[in-house]
């Protein structure tokens, strides 16, 4: 044990004497570990965010959309070009006994003009059931209700982000007018923050929500992009899907619509991002390879610099294994140093992005990062270490 600490102390003394060389040698490992840990943390955060969003919908939620959304594990072409639904479809699905509540969905994007400034935004038009189905909560004001839907009132519920951008604060947004495409609406409520945006999915905080009947102002054909529904919890979801499918088959062919559970969407999304994350980590790992090659090169230089020292140690009784161990320890120490610095930098970076994105590190990624760093030191340190260990004592002492 004393010998081991002696080797460690000797390595640290060498690093102290050549600080810049030590830092530059560890830089490749530092960058590689930083990139791998950061990308892994982003992937974990994204997965958690998506799971939380779908968990909020519950297990008794279904979506009906045009085309085959999950065809062959991805989005089928017909989903982009498929039929859009209408009021007949809505009324047909309302008659399905296992469907407790249903909302149609349509949208309109454009420049929303408020009292402070204008912002590009989107209005989602739905029924009053949408807020319960999607797990929305009101922060200020109220949701629109069935009377608003029946009377086609020009009212909107605002997300907190768009309310602050257009009016300065969510309190100021209540009862104010906002116009989109020269159509004026009154804001009657602001929802609590749902988050999202970017890779995290739709940014509900930046959207408006209005009665679907009012949305017919922008769409005289009265079409919907999809339906969302809550089903009877006492009825098996497979049975509900079959009933909904039979209702839709009265007007459409089987490949013209999809009935999707949130868990199915979650599985596909996680699969896509899982593959993407592996690709990004593989690309980032190239830095680790480059760092390993750098360590091997610098260890060869170290062997040359210490040739006479190695010869003297061999002459006074040091074994080949002692010399081999010394240089492998130095290579591993360089790798762990770079790994620790990369890990610390990644932690700081993750703390910086957490207010905007739910990235986080777990024990597995930390252990893996330090384990990989150590492995790189061993793998790329073996050849230089063997070269040092195989030096003949007499030749090494005479080396200049």
Automatic annotation (TrEMBL):
ABC3 transporter permease C-terminal domain ranges (all copies): 282-393
Major localization listed first in the record, in broad terms: membrane
One Pfam assignment: FtsX
Gene Ontology molecular function: any one: transmembrane transporter activity
Entry's localization field: Cell membrane
Domain MacB-like periplasmic core positions: 22-246
Any single GO CC term annotated in Swiss-Prot or TrEMBL for this entry: plasma membrane
Transmembrane segments: 21-46, 272-303, 324-357, 363-383
Membrane topology designation: Multi-pass membrane protein
Keywords from the UniProt entry: Cell membrane, Membrane, Transmembrane, Transmembrane helix
Superkingdom field: Bacteria
Family: Belongs to the ABC-4 integral membrane protein family.
PANTHER family associated with the record: ABC TRANSPORTER PERMEASE YTRF (PTHR30572:SF4), MEMBRANE COMPONENT OF TRANSPORTER-RELATED (PTHR30572)
Protein known as: ABC transporter permease
Species annotation: Candidatus Roizmanbacteria bacterium CG22_combo_CG10-13_8_21_14_all_34_12
Taxonomic placement: Bacteria, Candidatus Roizmaniibacteriota
